[in-house]
TrEMBL record, chain B:
It is a single-pass type I membrane protein. Residues 1-22 form the signal peptide. This is Collectrin-like domain-containing protein. It is found in: Cell membrane.
Amino acid sequence: MSAKGTEVKADTANVEVSKSTGERPKWDNKIQYLLTCIGFAVGLGNVWRFPYLCQIYGGGAFLIPYLIALVFEGLPLLYLELAIGQRLRMGSIGVWNSISPYLGGVGMASMVVSFLVGMFYNTILAWVLWYFFHSFQNPLPWRSCPVFNLTEYVRECELSSPVNYFWYRETLNITPNIETSGSLQWWLVICLATAWCIVYVCFIRGIETIGKAAYITATFPYLVLTIFLVRALTLPGAMTGLKYLFTPQWEILKNPRVWLDAATQIFFSLSLAFGGLIAFSSYNPQKNNCEQDAIIVGCINSATSIYASIPIFAILGFKANSNYEDCLNNNILSLTNAFNMGDQNITIENYETWLTYLNTSDPTKVANLHLKVCDLQTFLDQSASGTGLAFIVFTEAVIKMPGSQVWSVLFFIMLFTLGLSSMFGNLEGVLTPLLDLKLVPTCIPKEIFTGFMCLVYFIFSFIFALGSGNYWLEIFNSYVGSVPLLVIAFFEITAVSYVYGINRFSDDIEWMTGRRPNIFWQANWRVISPLMLLVVLLAYVVIQAMQELTYSAWNPNYVDFPMYEVLPYPGWVCAICVLLSTVPCILIPLVALYRFVHFLKKRVERLRAPSFYENEGYVSDM
Amino acid sequence: MFPRLHFAVCFTAVLGPTLVHTLCPEAVNSSSLIQSLFPGALLNAIMHIFSFRVSDVLVCNETQRVSFWFVVTDPENTSELISGKDVERAVRISRNRINNAFLLTDETLEFLNIPPTLAVPAESGTPPWLIVFGVVIGVVGVGIIALLISSFIQKRRKKGVTEGEEEDCEEEACDKGNGVSHPVEEGADGVNRGFVGDIPFTKL
């Protein structure tokens, strides 16, 4: 019966009260949520790991194990994470604590892994920024070797190649082995600072700012990929590259390694088990169709991988073609000079006929020239993945394209936005549990806390700015971002299927989306996905254990330089590798044990407790 | 720095015709052949330096590419030759000028055993990448400060609103009901307007 004016004022007062006690923040709209999840899933791996796998595992044939892994492993796990986060409305630690206190370790393991991955992932972004800053020069600095004494090139560069030299010497200033730490490279430190500042700007208010940043970071890569696609398809040699990529070699499917790599690729590509997806969906309204969301995110992630491999391989085909022509032209020049022939007499088209003719007429002279054998297939086989693809192979391709600066700038901005959107998930995977556990003092505003987090990360990532930083990054990448995630995911799915109960879970989903999950999801959650995960985990551990602990070092004084020197890891580094893999996993049984001991203690206390009627008050008097 | 180079090329007529004959046994005097074989600049250059006529040029040992040996004589003492090393150094330093004189490049004009002089990359004062870095970090820094200030202002405003409500209550007549105090709307005549809107609807 109150007047409208007082009612409105009372409502705002109520809202003020609830905000100060901590109403959960939420997404501005569904698009922001979807774009953030897609951005988290679509990362650098879609661009530089999937095309490589496609290439070495028989082109088009690889899509079969890949799509099977997506349907039976990727989508069920994705749906599970989004649903559980949305229902329980907490970050990873809170969610697993709710399901069972003994499983709190799963959440802690997620948080630790997210923290460790965030440390090295942003270093890659710092390298991307370094290349981006250098793309505004004409000519590009990795086009030619630096000159020494006016008459000769720097020896290290001459023996390898300008792109290799720019990456290993001018960017990383890499030491010959991991024991030599070298010094802190100041230029990498300022690139790291820039990268962390950019991350901070987007992350400053948690999902409020992440959601807005996602509009750009999630969509820009697609724009650039399309531009590259159009440009790449018009380059000479593009079709060779594409044919090479997509020609299916069916026999390769008999190799079990292909299936393992497809399963692990899908798993890591969807960024499962980081806790980031749980965190993102925990900010959703509870009545939200998470089944649709999961299918959208999963399918868009795989489609992006396939879409990205087209321009990448067109450009790699162009590069192989270019290298092949350079090789032939060198031979042609040697022949022309040796046989005193007219310029332009031997061309690429009639090279073979000329060579056979000259070989028959004067074989010794031809042999003395030491002509290199130019084979297009060898150049196409020079595959690379990871940082090698982006910073060595692709940069070499870019300098051969007209208008190199533009393509270089576009490429590195694309890589940066791809990585940035993945960083958001990593950071939320750490921030949300901390906020849920109320470990953050309420007097500190969120902006200051996120700034503090970024500062801590920045200082830790100095390890990767040392001379030996790249070696450490490889270690972190192989040992943190692999086995622990598989273990966490296995526990996640068994926890929900068998501890929480699929029936209870289905009831929750029915309440949230209005529909019970159908037999496909039930079968996957109960049997197929856990089994697949277990097999993949065991196979992966076995393969990792069988691998010799060696690494490839860049040593200019090596006898076979520019080949990589294969060195074994020293003992203390091996210990660190093992620690990185096992510490997150160990947290799971440790926390369970701790809770169990706590439970036992309480039980024992209760058993020993005096009965209600005994009054201890007079004991001392008696 | 170096004395003017006097070329003594196997097919010039600077030396006497007999010497030419010993150097060039099967000499063919054909001006049209010369002009079709030589690029115009090379011919002009040679002609300009030595001021002789086309008829003085004799061709021998024809090859499909133009290649020749040359020696350099000391201008004061024409029978003495300048050492090969000095000539090599001269060619290295003036390689660009020689190439330009013949309108050729390092690929098309080769001096045997003399690698091409490498172009020194242009060094600018500040490396360009630092400039781009400066721009980016400046923009990001401004963004961070703007966001921090805006959130600070928002918090201030929120605090101001809640405090303002309580202040409102202290100044005017307040109705404290259910722990939530809200100011009572009073008209000019002191009547509580809170129930005004309901009067037409209350029926006895």
